[in-house]
Input
Amino acid sequence: MTVEIICVGTELLLGNIVNTNAAYLAGKCAGLGLSCYHQQVVGDNAQRLEDAIRLAISRSDIVILSGGLGPTEDDLTKETAARCMGRELVMDEECRKKIDSYFKKRGMEATENNWKQAMVPEGGIVLDNPNGTAPGLLLKGEQAHLILLPGPPLELVPMFEESVAPYLNALGLGVIYSQTVKLCGISESEAETLIRDLVDGQANPTVATYAKTGEVHIRVTARAENEKEAKKLLKPLVKELKTRFGSYIYSTEEDVTLERAVVDLLIANKLSVTCAESCTGGRLSARLINVPGVSEAYKCGYVTYSNKAKRKILGVKKSTLQKYGAVSKQTAEEMAKGAARQAKADVAVAVTGLAGPDGGTQEKPVGLVYISCCVKGKVTVKEYHFSGSREKIRESSTSAALALARRCMLEYFSKVTFGKE
Amino acid sequence: MTVEIICVGTELLLGNIVNTNAAYLAGKCAGLGLSCYHQQVVGDNAQRLEDAIRLAISRSDIVILSGGLGPTEDDLTKETAARCMGRELVMDEECRKKIDSYFKKRGMEATENNWKQAMVPEGGIVLDNPNGTAPGLLLKGEQAHLILLPGPPLELVPMFEESVAPYLNALGLGVIYSQTVKLCGISESEAETLIRDLVDGQANPTVATYAKTGEVHIRVTARAENEKEAKKLLKPLVKELKTRFGSYIYSTEEDVTLERAVVDLLIANKLSVTCAESCTGGRLSARLINVPGVSEAYKCGYVTYSNKAKRKILGVKKSTLQKYGAVSKQTAEEMAKGAARQAKADVAVAVTGLAGPDGGTQEKPVGLVYISCCVKGKVTVKEYHFSGSREKIRESSTSAALALARRCMLEYFSKVTFGKE
Output
């Protein structure tokens, strides 16, 4: 079966935003066993949108549209899709109630244009949007299935996962099943070298590596009649990867992030954790607090951006700051120790570095970062050299801090040893 | 004049890469005064590529293709474009020499398929590629101009800047110039209601609203002979928007984010700031520390996730937590006051709320968030109801905290008053 993706939005045609929706949808559809031969982008123009939809229907079995479902005048996707399919728009009572309660909950009145969002093409299946007011839609026609999704990725992605993927799966396309082996503390090229033979000899299943900030994901994919068969194909391959990468693997579960792996390890060992952050400025704490249930392990953290804050809050010695500077092994070590003491935490992670764009010197260039981790009094400090923008350096530092925390805990509690990092 | 962008590549259809070329080319073309109504993505398939080019030629004056110019068998763009334009491929001597010297310089021999890259459609203008072996091409036909560019952004971007932009400029197209008016503390539908007349009556310049988490952007766009004329057209419109939205506007500059606007305001008023975060868990500090130069205003911040941390670090009263709970107006107020006192900061922003997914009750549902801002001892607390995932609620809370901080500072220092929020 073929799928075609149409992204609607003038901001795409003007180049104001990058079309991440198309990449996301294309990747997901490939994973579901659909062949995608065409993508289109059109603006909020009724005639051109209609032409695009009619063209897509004429050559593809499934047409996914994103964008143009909002409450404003120039949101035309639903009306145009209905016209292409020869359907009338009718008020959906369920939808109307949801919009009403969405605004009531916020102590606001829905404006007239919000009600437009409750109008649905006859025979359409409404897809719930827990992250916004614009519901999605499924329209099964004679020639093609039309799937309408909202434009904002934070709304589109959950709607695809929860409603569209199961719908497409039920069409019985055969499956392409993937599993991800997630590594940290190893570079992409190192990881690739270790599995070159598996990547080269690939047919079914296939093996591919993807670099993420501070992580490497190895994706194994099998094509089979059903999920059970696909899993059977993947099993020996995943086992082989586990043998090759050992403790570098932090998870093989889709929904386990690096921060979740760290929090799971903390909770399993009944440990409390704190963070002392300079250049990351709260990102490390924020990543940990992404994890539901983190309150069992995380009580408090410190953003100590100035030298004075490092001294007053964490007890970093004035002499250390003067002699070695704020971005130094010594300061990182005292930050972690101080944070552990102050928060009475079993584990403390501290980050200090130069995120730029200014402030670098020959000796201490932008991108130099020290991360330390104190586990029950035992401190490890590592030096890192990251590159890229201020944001990229801060994000790399945050991921490296999570990877180091995981490693230090494993070494302390499980007597696991790591290769060179 | 209209332009259409066709990106060629199976990796785009599989979702392996994000189509940054389309965004780049679209932005550049808009800046050059071209109207882009269509973008297409097709794979390395001769028939589908031919259909795509023929469709584009039939409806657009200029067609830009990226990708498929490489030396391998499945690179088909040049051959297909030549066929669509009815041209033969001939060996370009200049090209052949360049490829030869490219490989000689690297001490390598050009392989047979490299010579394919020196074949050029009759009448085509070869565009130099200093960053790779695949030259670009300009083909002027009766119906349309065809422009062929290599796929790798590091080759495409310099070639566009150096060769294509001057070529397009020489066609005398005029410019399309945009400006963004950025608002916070107002919903998209409210904002749209206030400018319905401007959106409806649009021709040149045009007005459109875009929702971002916690913000609304209004984009005004004018078409004119040159940038100066375009700016002249936009001026009265931007002035009108400033009158209608007043203090809700935090910037009209492309590169000013909400956090940057807050930091600018802090620095302009010589104020120091601190944050006390529960559910946002460091995100608010991290957003502020996104801004280079923030160290002038930001010294330290606190992530007080547990009740005990709220008491010990911020001095929130035990009785307050017992009587009203951690997620309450009263706790938020004491958090801000305590943080200001502890950090000796002029401004303190505190966030406490239920980010979910669990822990909500009938009385205090997931999404309930209190944000308080203390400016020189004067505390404002607001109640918010956000929805969506844990991540969405935390991101909405962070943006709302920045908006509230901005508002409280403006009200305190500039005696600015806001409408209902």
The first strand of chain A starts at residue 2 and ends at 8. Chain A has a mean pLDDT of 92.
